[in-house]
Amino acid sequence: MQTVKSYLSLIKFSHTIFAMPFALIGFFLGLKYITLAPLKGDDRPFENLVSSWLPGQAIEVANGEVIVPIPLILLKLGLVVLCMVLARSAAMAFNRYLDRHFDARNPRTAIREIPSGVISANKALIFTIICSLLFVVCTWYINLLCFYLSPFALFVILGYSFTKRFTPLCHLILGLGLSLAPIGAYLAMTAEFALLPVLFSLIVLFWVSGFDIIYALQDEEFDKENQLYSIPAAMGKRRALRVSAILHFLSAAFVIAAG
Q: What is the pTM of this model?
């Protein structure tokens, strides 16, 4: 149990709640679309939800209403949640692995699992690979579109860990990674792109970027000394907070735009 707790701490598992509500929004927007699509003559998302895992569970159209069996909804919801947990776990573990030398020099982060020796760097990397592979496998069982897009998702969420080494826009890349949650969950249900989940993705993009700038304020001097890039290190505290405020304003604006 202590080992499990160490890995959960490594990936900050409790923080998964940050983007989970937005993934669920995307999921239920997709479910709502599915209940309307067959009535409009669009059967692709309708067929996408049917699973060979649940034989005998059929979607029916009766009296002008689409009836989706609860087991089918729960199956797809479970896969969506599992994908999100696996993707985020891979991203966090890889970030800790890649930043282990910087974390060891920073008094604020020296107590983290890898620099403190609780978890070895190699084990963290293996954990990252396992989570990434399981993520791709889960997308295969969701639908082909999600499977084909899974490498792109991994590229964004894993690639973020490199960005602090060459651009102060790293906060926006982090936001982009988490912003994949609502549109990804919507695609999992419908296998079709739409504007509304994109608006929710923009909410997450600007919200996460804004608070990550605030979070980075505590490492402003450390980043400068170690030639790491961040908006606080590049612009100073006061200007960085102005940028954060603008990003939060944009996030709120897209909340209104999404309705």
A: 0.89
